[in-house]
Amino acid sequence: MALPGTAHAAAAKDSAPAEANTANVPTAYELQLLYADRTWVWKNGAAYFAQGNRRLEAWTSGQDTASVAEGRWLVTKEGKMCMELAWRSKGYTGEQRRTCYSHRIQGGNIQQRKDPDGEWYGFKRSPEDPSDEYSKFEAGNTKGSQFEETRKLVDSKN
């Protein structure tokens, strides 16, 4: 009984250095599982990634500023999650823009960076780490009422 376990441990040990030096990208399905029906909470706002229709709603509110964005999100087989949003505030209406984040899996951990040349950082580690960006994600549309309040403020004529 010890022999199969020993062989497995030896195989795992042999493959460990190679695994540490290689990075894979998550599949589009794996990325969808990370984002769909979740709210990414920021210091002064949030973004909600709807599941079925891939609708995306975001808002921010700082000192004397409030803005909202509506659009969609998508994932690619190259390990990217992209947000296509048009931001607007009381005095500004922007064009729809695409912002993408690349993901890679290294040593069982997911790293993320803002494209095209952001720095890689820990997005979701195993075991989870409180400093992971993914710890800012909440299941469901947890900030929908704040989005609606901000949207009404931005869209008001006063």
Q: Would you kindly provide a written description of the structure presented here, covering whatever features stand out?
A:
Residues 7-20 have a biased composition (Low complexity). Pfam families: DUF995 (PF06191). Residues 125-136, 146-158 have a biased composition (Basic and acidic residues). The chain is an alpha+beta fold. It is 25% helix and 41% strand. The protein contains 3 helices and 10 strands. The chain has helices at 2-21, 28-35, 144-155; strands spanning 38-42, 45-49, 55-62, 65-75, 80-89, 92-93, 97-106, 109-114, 121-124, 137-139. Strands 1, 2, 3, 4, 5, 6, 7, 8, 9 and 10 form a 10-stranded antiparallel β-sheet that branches. A hairpin with a 2-residue loop joins strand 7 and strand 8 (109-114). Residues 1-21 have low confidence and may be disordered.
The dominant shape is elongated
What is the SS-derived class? alpha+beta
Number of domains: 1
CA distance, first residue to last residue: 77 Å
Q: Tell me about the largest β-sheet.
A: 10 strands, antiparallel
Mean pLDDT: 86
Show unreliable segments.
Answer: 1-21
Which properties best describe this structure?
single chain, 158 residues, alpha+beta, ten-stranded antiparallel sheet, 3 helices, 25% helix, disordered N terminus, DUF995
Can you give me a brief rundown of this structure?
Helix content is 25%, strand content 41%. It is α+β, with helices and mostly antiparallel strands and 158 residues long.
